[in-house]
Sequence to fold (484 residues):
Amino acid sequence: MFELEIWWLVALSVAVVLVCILAFRLHAFLTLLLAGLIVAALTSDTALVDYAGEQVAKSAWTEKAAAAFVDRSAPERLATAFGETAASVGILIALASIVGQCLLESRAALTIVDAMLRLTGKKRAAEALVASSFVLGIPVFFDTVFYLMVPLARSLRQRVGKDYVLFILAILAGGSIAHSLVPPTPGPLQVAEIIGVDIGTMLLVGLAVGGCSSVLSLFAARVINRFVDVPLRSLDATDEASAPEANLDTVEDAELAKPSLILALLPIFTPVILIATSAVVDSMLGAGRIEPSTLTSFFLGIGDKNVALGIAVVISLRLLRFVDDSKRKSLISRSLGSAGNIILITAAGGAFGAMLRQAGIAGAVSDLAQDVPLVMLLPIAFAVTAAIRTLQGSSTVAMITAAGVLQGFAHTEGLPFHPVYLAMAIGAGSKPIAWMTDSGFWVMCKMSGMTEREGLLTVSPMSTAMGINALVVTVIFAQFFPLI
Fold:
């Protein structure tokens, strides 16, 4: 009976998220906060006592802290969870936003793209667009990556005379997959937090799974390109004005001052290397292969996610000399302004997930998992996320909501693979199906000059193929590299 109440609560909260976003067009921050408050208010005292007892048993809380938790009101518990999530990811998102904006406005991002094109040549321009978009999608949000890359795709179409659909979908294949699988973008960052996966492990596995998925997705882009042709149309002035001015660089702007390739790549790869090194050192310490020392403490310190991104910010500030004087002084404040919106949504999603945990969702899912073949856990996670994503549009909201519902699977006894693969399956499920409910769908249509029908014939099947490819790669990795 208790589990039945939990599942009714889950169904109600998910319905609230979908109805508020689809029917009332409510902002995701308010929607997730409202869903969390409803869950908190309807959670029984028995569930709270059980949850507090679990924390005491794990030595996470004292008896006094557990008693105080049970006495808190629903709004207090929601606010506490919101603050804890913001403390966990807020600094990281803010720093990543600064790095991304420096890359864009200094033209360092264009340097990376140009280098990829020189390496591959025009005949392999699609591969260059995939690789560039994937690299840029690590610190930069996908919509911004698309704004940056679509003028290049249009220029390539003018020069090559064909394959415009291929170029557009290649950008989608690289940037969108990185956006859903590789931190520090908000979706994978928050999923790792909810599932309980170390950020270094999430980063390494996300790079591997995402890289392979992007390559496979390029084959799907080539197939779609063979059957659908989109002419190169002139964009309305309003469409071009909708993109940030710094993102409308084209290949013809190459003579303007740009950073060197090494300087352009440093802010991206430095935190990746530092976090990965820290994860390896931590793993070796845990396995007893090395002894604690000043050197290991140093690597663990600089590999902390916030410290690593802070170092990346310091490096990226060297790019400011390539930024226009009129924008240089306001760059950081503008970056933090855009990051604030993402932090609020992410923290609200984290609070929503925490309220579901306190209601007992982890135990209910674990009990349910006993009747589900473990091999089916990844497809189930994919299907749940894909359903939420298709209905309400936002991949980030879908990932956060699904992770909150599915978090109990991560701690299922006898799980034959590392929980990071559950996070990867959730990220894969956030791809299908991009259509009318997705703001990114409209960005891609308007900025590329596609009609709605052409978008449904290209972007929608491509997003589905990307999700399936990512799921297949995740299952293969979980089978051959379980990491346990």
User: Anything to note?
Assistant: DSSP finds 23 helices and no strands in the chain. The chain has a mean pLDDT of 84. Residues 74-105 form the longest helix (32 residues). The radius of gyration is 22 Å.
